[in-house]
Amino acid sequence: MHLLPSLTAPARAAPCAAAHVARVAVRIAALGALLLAGAAAADPLTVKITNQAGAPLANAVVMAIPPRLPPPRKPRPVAIEQKDREFLPFVTVVEVGTSVTFPNRDPLLHHVYSFSPAKVFEIKLYNGDSRSVLFDKPGPVALGCNIHDWMEAHIYVAPTPYFARTDAQGQARLNLPAGAYTLQTWHPYQNGVLPPTDLKMAGPQSQSLTLPVTVPPAKAKPPNDPNQY
Ligand SMILES: [Cu+2]
Fold first, then answer.
1. Counted domains in the chain
2. Dist. CA 148 → ligand 1 center (Å)
3. Is 31 left (phi over 0), alpha (psi -120 to 50) or beta?
4. DSSP states of 149-211 as a string?
């Protein structure tokens, strides 16, 4: 019996199309206001990371993990280029579920691979565009090239949509809706793991962290020989 009103409701609403349009417009306006309110509620968090010597640490990943993740959205596609026999950029952070392509901009072949538990894959000798690789598990992924031993890059697959990478000044900037988070950091050369810290966002915040790193010696990059590789 209680189904009857909802079944008859559209029939009653139908004759007055103008009123229906107005109601939809009101709903869209309300949704817009809600979205604006949501955007306004996000506050900037600046995290400055230094190494054990007090120098700014670039290429560190900063992640803020809320107790409940927001509804999943379609992550933007990401590309990691190969240019002048190097990967660009050196560190990329993506959300779980992101597809990454590895366009080869060099006039020679590369062979990209990872043996990392978060994603094992290889794209055999190729040139130009690559197929895309889905990163569906969180964690670090170290990239190499089978042909060019010195080529190195890293992807961190983050379990949250809230992340940033530190710039040359060691600063990462995130915009976070008010609430509680666990703050996690990562760097490809970190010497030990920083314990996660609790973060309460209720207005703009900044934090300073020290992440000790051990940078391995750079691998020699031979001069380009067009007759070889
Ligand atoms: Cu290569």
1. 2
2. 4
3. alpha
4. TT-EEEEEEESSS-EEE--TTSEEEEEEESEEEEEEEE-TTBSS-PPPEEEEESS-EEEEEE-
* 83 CA to centre of ligand 1 in angstroms: 9
Q: Quick one: pLDDT at residue 163?
A: 98
| C-alpha 168 to ligand 1 mean position (Å) | 26
Residue 79 domain boundaries = 70-159
Q: Are residues 74 and 155 in the same domain?
A: yes
Q: Which residues surround the ion ligand 1 when the cut-off is CB under 5 Å?
A: 110, 145, 147-148
**What's the gap in Å between 111 CA and the centre of ligand 1?**
6
Q: How far is the CA of 228 from the centre of ligand 1 (A)?
A: 12
Q: Residue-wise pLDDT tens for the chain (229 aa)? A: 343 333 333 334 444 455 554 555 545 444 444 444 444 579 999 999 999 999 999 999 999 999 999 888 888 889 999 999 999 999 999 999 999 999 999 999 999 999 999 999 999 999 999 999 999 999 999 999 999 999 999 999 999 999 999 999 999 999 999 999 999 999 999 999 999 999 999 999 999 999 999 999 989 998 887 766 6
In degrees and rounded to multiples of 5, residue 107 shows phi and psi of -85, 30
Q: Are residues 101 and 126 in the same domain?
A: yes
Q: How far is the CA of 146 from the centre of ligand 1 (A)?
A: 6
CATH number at residue 116: 2.60.40.420
C-alpha of residue 7 to centroid of ligand 1, in Å: 64
Verify that 52 and 83 share a domain, yes or no: no
CA atoms within 13 A on the CB side of 199: 32
Ligand 1 center to residue 82 CA distance, Å? 8
